[in-house]
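The protein record filed here:
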Amino acid sequence: QVLLVESGGGLVQAGGSLRLSCAASGRTFSTYTMGWFRQAPGKERDFVAFINWSGGSTTYADSVKGRFTISRDNAKSTVYLQMNDLKPEDTAVYYCAASSRLAARTTRGAYDYWGQGTQVTVSS
């Protein structure tokens, strides 16, 4: 069992930055791929980024590539999402998730555990 708690969301102007954190409980954090997804009102929950267990491999959605950076600190059981040059279309609830799988990690079905989400609002 892994409990995930996100923090760091808020209101920011377009062009600004935010850093999301996701703290995990459990002794096996370092064995999981960690992902970030987001869900805007009335839309599906979409993939944003994932990072493998060691932090040596990352993958991003095209919409955030070059602006967002995912990282992790296994000693602190925490994964981060640094978001720069934010745009109004980045407005959503952001969720972190943990996956024990090695395939399809850009899809929601690959993830075993989810946090409750943190709201990010970008004003124009």
Q: What stands out?
A: The chain has a mean pLDDT of 96. The two ends are 40 Å apart (CA to CA). The first strand starts at residue 4 and ends at 7.
